[in-house]
Amino acid sequence: PRTRRVHFQGQFMLVNKHARPLDTIIVSLPVEQHPRLRALALGQPGTATLALNDTTSGLRLYRLARPLAPGDSLPLTMSLDYRELGFPNSDSNTDIVDNGSFISSNYLPSLGYRKDAELTSDQERKSYGLKPRPRMAPVNDLPARQNTYISQDADWIRFRTTVSTEADQTAIAPGYLQKEWTKDGRRYFTYVMDRPMLNFYTFLSARYLEKKDQWVDSAGHRTVPITIYYQPGHTYDLDRMLAGAKAALSYCSRNFSPYQHQQVRILEFPGYQSFAQSFANTIPFSESIGFIAKVDPKDPEDIDYPFYVTAHEVAHQWWAHQVIGGNVQGSTLMAESLAEYSALMVMKHAFGYYT
Fold first, then answer.
1. What is the domain partition of the chain in residue ranges?
2. Over pLDDT 90: what percentage of the chain?
3. Which of these, 147, 77, 93, 79, lies nearest to 115 by C-alpha position?
4. What is the reported pLDDT for 87?
């Protein structure tokens, strides 16, 4: 990350889940992130021909020499780079930085047409002669219900990744650490998820310190480690965040279902953005909404928001990562609304009804 450069090299395994053969595959690149594509191929040489390459929208259309039968699979291999050179007049990319890079799966190719890349402003659409953008599909739209609202090109995936970073940094992705080594002055980490997870993941790298705790799962008769990866000096609210994580794990396990993972990890990222986000057993968390908060425990009007935000994000391990709605209107009720409800119930039990 010192040179603000990211290199991806990997493979997606595509499966035809339709009832008919497919002779065409659409691959979309996130052109708004300015990728430098080095290689993108379907199967072995001769398997597919690039029939359309729209470099403006990032849409690539491949014709298969032999249609992909229902249930058959095909690898999509890729190699692409991102690098920030100099600085723009505005909207600098703060995902890739010297210390605290936070790179999501949105930097990788996706399958099919990217509806989320359309113009969203009705006024802007009007200036191009376009009609107002339709709302999400209604709840009874069966084709829309075939996908989750988070990902249009996959439901639950198997995930394995190796991440390399500078020698003085720790790189983290969803899953469980299988191997760690150093080579040519760089550190390498291999993570594997032990169960299917959403097609929604991230990679972080920073000069972290760690604070460890554990949650005793009395119902499951196990102990789950909790680790917070934080910027040195940002120790103000770590205990509050640990307490929020344990309280949410207990409440959700007791009232909904068992926690599906064997660990919880919370990772600080720089305050260029102010949010936290829940991935499978991995929760990136902005320094600006938890790690440097000043909460006055003597003031009943001062909300303990590091505790609260942590509880909300841990609740997403149930609401979105266990139960998730289709790509239809109202689907976020089963993610954001229920995570919010769960966090408020945790607050009620911890601080009282009127907090």
1. 1-84, 178-182+187-351
2. 83
3. 147
4. 81
pLDDT tens figures, 41-93: 999 999 999 999 999 999 999 999 999 999 999 999 999 999 988 888 888 88
pLDDT of residue 354: 66
Q: Do 264 and 226 contact (CB within 8 A), yes or no?
A: yes
What's residue 66's pLDDT?
Answer: 96
For every residue of the chain, which 3-state class applies, written as one string?
CCCCEEEEEEEEEEECCCCCCEEEEEEECCHHHCCEEEEEEECCCCCEEEEEEECCCCEEEEEEEEEECCCCEEEEEEEEEEECCCCCCCCCCCCCCCCCEEEEHHHCCEECCCHHHCCCCHHHHHHCCCCCCCCCECCCCCCHHHCECCCCCCCEECCEEEEEEECCCEEECCCEEEEEEEECCEEEEEEECCCCEECCCEEEEECCEEEEEEEEECCCCEEEEEEEEECCCCCCCHHHHHHHHHHHHHHHHHHCCCCCCCCEEEEEECCCCCCECCECCEEEEEHHHCCCCCCCCCCCCCCCHHHHHHHHHHHCCCECCCECCECECCHHHHCHHHHHHHHHHHHHHHHCCCC
pLDDT at 300: 82
The CA-CA-CA angle for residues 265, 198, 334, to 5°, reads: 90
| Regions of the chain where pLDDT drops below 50 | none
Domain 178-182+187-351 has CATH 1.10.340.30: no
Residues 317/257, Cβ–Cβ less than 8 Å: no
